[in-house]
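Per your request, structure below.
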């Protein structure tokens, strides 16, 4: 089969203005960035249209090194719904440069199930990530400047909470010392960098509904504490307007399309292991206003991205998905069932059956939110009819719908079965979301409920720093905020080597980070890092420019 790059460049991409026209968008809302991508200058929403739209969440089983293909499935489902003449809009996150040049490569789908222009989306796109990085680092610089000129005063800054960020995987920046070599260079401090998708400003952008809301959330960002012990915010620093100015265009959702011309709104990009893992509320609500069906996804598996989608994003946006799609692959199931990577493509019903324990766990998680579920096998060429039928019958016995996605090889035609099942389920959509915890619960209770009811463990163990932060959170009156668990994606536990299916584990909470502007508390669990590192052989080794074309990002 041709490479993703070859497929994406087989034919010219239709002008984005045609896509906007076909979806019924007011031409005045479109701000073109060249011919193939655009910003949508939407300033208000029609809540009646949004309420009538059917939102479909795509999530997945626990990821493995073999991958799951959640984005490929999301794109395929959108194309499949378009094939059966449904008015559908796709809503996805923007890829980060860190994984693109690191382990993952591109994040725009694959095969004949891609969003285009693929190279642009995977790299600089419309500049949103650069704007967020610049705004974050400008804010950090302004705070350090305030510290410099107010050193020794009661109103000076004793404790700094904000870190600088970059959209790269760079382990050497996790812990750094700044302002060395003399007092004129600032106040010497031990600090570190987060990757841009883990920054609070990324979350602020993704959880804002318009420019005014963005400004209010930036105002509320807690930057540190003074020597007098008072909290110090962006509003106190007096620079909210400047930071908002840097994000004025970034708050607008981006419009692109799939290979089959289905409109795709790609906006925002928090990771789900170290952040809240969902695209922007602006993107989702814009898509719901313009489409009868909206396909969106949450990062990694249901215990991470989907949990945060329901407990954080849906709460803030006031939206309820009609159903959830749970994506699995035979390789991932066999790896979960104990088979080595060298054997995962070979038929093995015994390993497949053992791996289905992971699927059962994720079905239970989605059902805890009262979701209607469709299990989808993201098909590979080596999957056998016997294995597919085994999965289909297993789902039938569980009372859960099942479909095969072959969009990677066949595009929308390979997703028709999946699309028809989605339409069938959406005729009687899921009821109101049953949240894992109440906002009135204290922070420790919220974390314990997530561990017990989502991960299936016994509860949390709070380290000293986390205990101290809970006291600070209570003093500030922020215990009502939801919790965003930052933990490994490779297990239900905080240890990637322990799958946690037996439930005999606790989650170690090392620290709590107050994201007051974004409106949630981040629990840093186990040895999770908010600045990833690169693998031994990064994807950057395979990226090049040949005859003026970028290759290797697929």
């Amino acid at each position: 089969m041709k490479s993703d790059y070859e497929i994406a460049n087989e034919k010219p991409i239709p002008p984005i203005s045609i896509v906007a026209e076909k979806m019924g968008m007011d031409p005045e809302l479109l701000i073109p960035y060249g011919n193939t991508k655009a910003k949508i200058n939407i300033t208000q929403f029609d809540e009646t249209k949004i309420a009538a739209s059917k939102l479909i969440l795509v999530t997945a089983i626990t990821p493995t090194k073999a991958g799951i293909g959640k984005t490929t499935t999301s794109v395929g489902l959108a194309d499949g719904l378009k094939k059966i003449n449904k008015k559908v809009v796709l809503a996805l996150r923007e890829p980060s440069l860190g994984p693109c040049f690191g382990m993952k490569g591109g994040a725009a789908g694959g095969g004949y199930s891609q969003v285009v222009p693929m190279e642009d989306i995977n790299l600089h796109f419309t500049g949103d990530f650069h704007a967020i990085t610049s705004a974050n680092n400008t804010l950090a610089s302004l705070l350090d400047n305030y510290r410099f000129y107010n050193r020794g005063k009661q109103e000076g800054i004793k404790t700094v909470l904000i870190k600088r960020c970059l959209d790269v995987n760079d382990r050497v920046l996790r812990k750094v010392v700044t302002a060395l070599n003399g007092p004129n260079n600032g106040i010497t401090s031990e600090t570190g960098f987060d990757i841009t998708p883990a920054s609070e400003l990324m979350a602020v952008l993704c959880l804002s509904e318009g420019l005014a809301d963005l400004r209010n959330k930036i105002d509320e960002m807690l930057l540190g504490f003074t020597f007098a012990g008072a909290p110090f915010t962006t509003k106190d620093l007096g620079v909210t307007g400047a930071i908002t100015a840097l994000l004025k265009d970034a708050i607008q959702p981006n419009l692109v399309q799939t290979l089959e011309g289905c409109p795709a709104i790609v906006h925002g990009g928090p990771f789900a292991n170290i952040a809240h893992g969902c695209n922007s509320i602006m993107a989702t609500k814009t898509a719901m206003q313009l489409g009868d069906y909206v396909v969106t996804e949450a990062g990694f598996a249901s215990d991470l991205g989907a949990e945060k989608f329901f407990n954080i994003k849906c709460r803030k946006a006031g939206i309820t998905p009609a159903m959830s799609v749970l994506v699995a692959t035979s390789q991932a199931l066999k790896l979960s069932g104990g088979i080595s990577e060298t054997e995962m493509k070979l038929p093995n019903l015994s390993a497949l059956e053992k791996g289905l324990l992971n699927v059962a766990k994720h079905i239970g998680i989605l059902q805890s939110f009262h979701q209607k579920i469709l299990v989808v096998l993201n098909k590979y060429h080596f999957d056998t009819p016997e294995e597919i039928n085994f999965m289909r019958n297993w789902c039938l016995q569980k009372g859960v719908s099942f479909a095969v996605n072959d969009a990677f090889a066949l595009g929308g035609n390979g997703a028709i079965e999946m699309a028809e099942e989605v339409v069938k389920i959406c005729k009687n959509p899921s009821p109101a979301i049953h949240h894992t915890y109440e906002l009135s619960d204290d922070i420790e209770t919220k974390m314990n409920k997530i561990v017990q009811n989502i991960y299936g463990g016994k509860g949390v163990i709070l380290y000293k720093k986390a205990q101290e932060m809970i006291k600070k959170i209570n003093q500030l009156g922020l215990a009502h905020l939801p919790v965003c668990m930052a933990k490994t994606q490779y297990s239900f536990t905080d240890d990637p080597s322990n799958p946690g299916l037996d439930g005999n584990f606790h989650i170690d909470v090392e620290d709590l980070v107050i994201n007051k502007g974004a409106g949630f508390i981040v629990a840093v669990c186990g040895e999770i890092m908010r600045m990833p590192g690169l693998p031994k052989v990064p994807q950057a080794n395979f990226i090049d420019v040949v005859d003026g074309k970028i290759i290797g990002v697929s």
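The first strand starts at residue 30 and ends at 32.

Regards,
D.
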